[in-house]
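Morning. Coffee machine broken again, so started the prediction first thing and wrote up yesterday's gels while waiting. Chain of 552 residues, entered below exactly as on the submission form.
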Amino acid sequence: MGTLAAGLLAIGLVACDPAMTDEPVYLDQGWSEELRQQFYFTPQGSRMMPNAWFRALETATGDGRFSDPANLARYGLIAAVGEHELNPDGYPVGFAIDPAPGAPGVGPAVGLTCAACHTSSVTVQGRSVRIDGAPAHFDFDSFFQDLARAVQLTLVDEERFERFAGAVLGDTLTPETAARLKSGFAAFQVDFTAEAALRRPALQSGYGRVDALTQIVNSLAVRDQNVTANLFPVEAPTSYPALWLAPHLEFVQWSPIAASPIGRNSGEVLGVFGHANLNAAAGDPYGSTILLDELAAMEAWLTDLAPPAWDPELMGQIDSDKATEGKELFDKNCAGCHNMPPYRRTDPARNFFGKDFIEIGRVNYRAVGTDPAYIESLLFRLVRTNDVTAPGLGDHPVVPAARFFLSTVSRVVGKAMADQGIGQDQQAALHGFRFSKGDDGKPVPYGPGKETLAELKAPTLAGVWATGPYLHNGSVPTVYELLSPVSERRAVFWTGGREIDRERLGFVSDEAAGLFRFDTALRGNGNMGHEYPKDGLTPDQRLAIIEYLKTQ
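Came back before lunch.
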C-alpha cells in the first residue's frame, strides 16, 4: 500500500470509538461469558510474528506502540473488556498467542483468529452492543500494510531499532544480543515485506471487507509454493459473512465451493498468517501450522451461537401489522432464494451419512446482475503447481485456482489428521459429514460443479439487521436501498460507522470524519443488480419487508 496507505491514515481511519472500549450490552445468543472469551482468544494456527516483537513495534508514524489498543482501534478492532488468561497482553478481540515459538529463541507467536473478522460492536443511539458472529468492521488490508511498513522502518531506522531491541531484550540487551536480534529481524522483514506485496489491495477494501479468497490462494500458491508467477491482484473484496448457523448450513462462503467445516476453517487460517509446507525444500510436504483440535472446538462453539434477536426495548418496537404484511411480500418475492425458518433442508438421501443441512439459495452471478469482479476473479484465475502439489492434481502444471485451493487445503487437513492418528469416523465428523454417495458407493466430498463456480450464495437472513452493508461486496448500505431500484441507491457512502440505522436496516453511513469513502463506480464496488421483484416495490412495501426482517 505504501504511500496510499499513508494518505488514508492522514485522512484518518477510525478514532478510538467508545463502542470499542465501553462495557457493552451483550445480546442473548446462547453463549456464556467464558465461551465467548474462548472464541475471541483461542489460537488456531495463525502465526503473524513473535509476540515479543509485536509488543515492541512502534507505529510507522512513531507515535506509540503499534499494539496499543488505541492504535488498533483505528482499524476497527474491538478492545478487550476485562482480563482473561488466554489474552495476557490485553489485545483486541481476535488476537491469540500461538503455543509454538514465533522464531527460534524469541517465544510464542501472535496471530489472528476468526473472531477478528466475525465479531461486531455496534451502537444503538450511542449505546454499545456486542454481536458475536456478526461481520466485523475490521479493515484488515490497512492493518497489515501499516504493520508491514512499521516492520520495515524498525529495521532501517537505527534509533527506532535501538528502542525496539531494548523493549524486546530488556535486561539481556548487549551489543551481541542486539546484533543477533537484528539479523533474525532482517530475515523476518524480507519475508513480511514480500507477504505485504502479495496482499497489497489493488482495490481498497475499507472496513468490513477483504478479498479473502485471492489472499488465501496467493498465500498458498505464491508464498508457500514459492512460485512468484502465481501472484494475482487483490481486487475483489467481499463482506465478512455472519457465523451464526454456519455449522448447520450447506455452504457458508459467498461462493459455495468449500463445504467441509474443517477445510473451511483451515483455509481461513492458512490465509491469515498460517503456513503450509508446499515447497519441497521445506520438507514434510503438506505439514502446516493449523491447530485441528482448536478449529474443531471453534466450530462446535458455533453450533450454540444463535442469531441476534431484535431487542424492542433497546432498538424500538416492531409494528406487528406491518411485519405481517412484510412477510407476505417476502414470501412472494424473496423466499425463493433466501431460505427462512422453518428452513428448507437438503435431501438426506443424497448424503452418504443420511445427514441434512440448511439449504442455501444459489443464483448465477450474471442472473442476479451484481458486480462480477469476485466471481470472475475465481473463474478466470489459473495457478501453476509445483513438485509438491502437482501429484495431487493429476500432475497438471497449471490448474484452475478453485481446484488448487480445494485440493491443497484438503491435503493439508489430511496430513494434519494423519499426524494426529485421527480415525475415519472422527474425520467424517470434522468434515461435517459433507459427503455425497459416489457411483461406487463410497463417500465423495461435497465440491463445486461447473455451475457452482459461477454462483453466488443467497444467504439466510436471520439477524440481517446486524450484517450491513449488503450484497456480497458490501456495496449497498441499507436493506431499504437493496429493495430499491439501482437508480435510487447511493453511489457513494461511508463505511466504518457503528450506529444501527433502525429504520432502513444497516448502518448510518453518511460522511463523517474517520470513515472510509465507498465509491460504487469502481470495479469490484458496483452496486448494480438484485432488482427484485421486476415490477419493483413501493416505499411502503419496502418498509413492510424491513419490519418483517426485524422479527428474524
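The first strand starts at residue 25 and ends at 26. Going to sketch it on the whiteboard this afternoon.
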